[in-house]
Amino acid sequence: QLHSDQDKGDGSLKYILSGDGAGTLFIIDEKTGDIHATRRIDREEKAFYTLRAQAINRRTLRPVEPESEFVIKIHDINDNEPTFPEEIYTASVPEMSVVGTSVVQVTATDADDPSYGNSARVIYSILQGQPYFSVEPETGIIRTALPNMNRENREQYQVVIQAKDMGGQMGGLSGTTTVNITLTDVNDNPPRFPQSTIHLRIPESSPVGTAIGSVKATDADTGKNAEVEYRIIDGDGTDMFDIVTQKDTQEGIITLRKPLDYETRRLYTLKVEAENTHVDPRFYYLGPFKDTTIVKISVEDVDEAPVFSRSSYLFEVHEDIELGTIIGTVMARDPDSASSPIRFSLDRHTDLDRIFNIHSGNGSIYTSKPLDREISQWHNLSVIAAEINNPKDTTRVPVYVRILDVNDNAPQFAVFYDTFVCENARAGQLIQTISAVDKDDPLGGQKFFFSLAAVNPNFTVQDNEDNTARILTRRNGFSRHEISTYLLPVVISDNDYPIQSSTGTLTIRVCACDSRGNMQSCNAEALLLPAGLSTGALVAILLCIIILLVIVVLFAALKRQRKKEPLILSKEDIRDNIVSYNDEGGGEEDTQAFDIGTLRNPAAIEDKKLRRDIIPETLFVPRRTPSAPDNTDVRDFINQRLKEHDTDPSAPPYDSLATYAYEGNDSIAESLSSLESGTTEGDQNYDYLREWGPRFNKLAEMYGGGESDKDAS
Length: 713
Description:
Oligomer: single chain
Strand content: 25-35%
Number of helices: 5
CATH topology of the domain at 412-521: Immunoglobulin-like
């Protein structure tokens, strides 16, 4: 309450208020000076307010006293409960932790004045989560309350924490929060096989590397704490099988290391161990962190293909053996217990020439054609073995046949020798060095001997003993006029057994040489010719030859042009004559061969247009005929033209083909071929040929005359 000393109680003074919240939160009674709050005041919003008050004369509105300032301080009461910043907390703690292990700390705040009483003093307690966890009352730290909590038994826990002010006393306000606690995994469980014995099966034909089956040990832990490594630690199949750990599935895959044989062994026993790869030393006392199981693998019988005694065969044989000689034998057996008989055969793709054959029962390979090392030194065969009871199950083996050399080829000259001897040669002069080759390949290498087939008075052979020989002259001087060529037989022998030899003949020409022995001419007739012709004489001779050739060609051309044979040479020469013009029409699209417009418009025919199929001897001026009117029927036009040509003496008597683009009616004459007439049994009458016009008179005379003669006889 405000009161001025000048206030006499007569209502002449007026109190006014200004400052924080004046007129809104705080109001003043103008007459009495009492200050009132218009609503509830919250200290947590504002702890104090500064106001100014003054008394003025109501009539003059002048202050009667100076303005005074005062502060209104709000005293706190416990009207706010503690609150947590998170409604739900999430925390984790390793399983098997010791008692008192810190999990998480929660903190609540109270908006009340901590300096005024216990309104802001908070105490923490646990409402849910006992006896597993506890909370420190002053700090809010949550700790484990039980030892050896096992994640495998229970993994999730929900703890409710309460925060209460007034030091936790009665009447205090409180707030709660929820903490979800998860136990994290540690490696406190060893792997365990669900079965003490595991049975697996595998066919004996399985290739190396085949996965036989899998084993798996279970581990209650998770993540890396559950990782397991598998190994084979004992058993009678440690060298036959392997085990590989599959990381994603944590399984042990057993694979085949070596081929199996049912007939040799049918059962294998393995001892497989599974061990954790990450072991926590704190939990060694819970170990050992590994387990074992027995794996029994049964081998199943399969009808196997035959097995050869070797992976490959090599046979050596001389090329001169007789046909049918056995060069070697391959052996195979049926590995199955039934021991089925084996049938052998040759893959003919490896013996296209069918040089070899094989006995199907015992596998003996023999020759069916002669061998020749010089053609092929090696033969690579493929032998197929199949069971008689199961021919589809086959096995192949390579057979290499090496052909050994036999001295069956005689040596020959290495090259063709073009040998000459100078006319002025002296005795003992070297004219040629010769060598030889041999298709055979003896072990000691090639060795050739050279000699003459007979004693020669002109030449001799000197063996150099290095597979070469020298041809030497035995006399002085040679003459081309007497003998221009000498033939010298040379015998070449080898050194192998049996000795092979051949005779090669050297052709030695006698030539003119200069003083240095260089050949100049080897032609014996060259000495009989004159010294030579000049260039002008050679050109003149050549021109004469050309002129003669031109004259001959022209003469032949003129003779061919003048020569013209008639269609029928004489009356006695009666035969079928076929004249081929080799002129094929161009069809309906050939507008150059014939113009159909000519038939439609006969007036458009050009004058003096001659036939192109023959060359007439005399040019007759064709008679001009009046053109038919435009409306003339095509048939009438053709008949008119036919009649004109029949009476035209200038028309050549040759068969020709004229296309009128009109088929017309069938011919009353039918076929004129003498070939068809021979098929009829009765005699034919050719008198109708006379009725066809003058163009067929010749035929009428020939065939009609024949009829008369026949009747007369």
